[in-house]
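User: quick one, fold this
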Amino acid sequence: MHKKAYLALVIATLCWGGNAVAGKLAVGHVSPMMLTFWRWLIATVIIFAISAPQLRKDWPVVRKNLPILIFLGVMGYVVFNAALYTAVNYTTAINVTVEQVLIPMLIFVMNFALFRMKVSLAQVFGFTLTFIGGIITAVHGDFETLRTLTVNIGDAIMMIAIVGYAIYTVALRWRPMVNWRTLMAVPALVAMLFSIPLAAWEYSSGRMIWPDTTGWIVALYTAVFASLIAQVLYIVGVGKIGANRAGLFINLVPVFGTLLSVAIIGEDLQIFHIVALALALSGIAIAEWGKPASV
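Assistant:
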């Protein structure tokens, strides 16, 4: 009945799942801040090229809402990706994908704390399972590290990305009512501009790596597939089956990311990864099933 919507959402999450793998493949071929800059420069050029008339039409609304659009671009596009691409220099692509299951739980906590959204016991239980799954991944299945507080630096950096994206998602409630192309184009431009000082810092510290052939391929993938195609297909899916049902498909991102990491990079799939994924996805499913009825 909704086969086209399901297909669109599965492809979108597959593209997003490949983002962490792309970041891992970029190591040694393009530095994290340069990758962030080129991703959003390429994406901005493409989206502006196909959206110019709509952007001119929406400009009066955009001008009045620049602060929130800038915030969305910085938190959702710059902080998340810059932290993710840095994290994979120190930890595995599987880890950073599995750890992203913490995002729905953080969104839930922030919405409850800021807006007192209704909460059920099933949601508390479900997101507790998700949290445990994320912690298992962060400590690589060794809870002794919690006592000594020796978490891998890459996993710690990834937590910055996760918090940033959760804030971005919560802040979307204040997004202006403009066409989806405008909502993509303006934050993408902001992300490109804000990534310039990060790239400059990377250069001044002697850490910048200009893209080689592999680096350019990764940059093109992140710009075209992880940024544009995935977002367009997600919007198509939301339009056909609604945001709540479409949002559940995001839980496929860590699944695809884990499988791609094993298949493409050859990373080892550990028992704790499987346990963490099972706990996290089960927790999210329980939380969705047990959500309070709408008022």
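User: anything notable?
Assistant: The longest helix spans residues 32-64.
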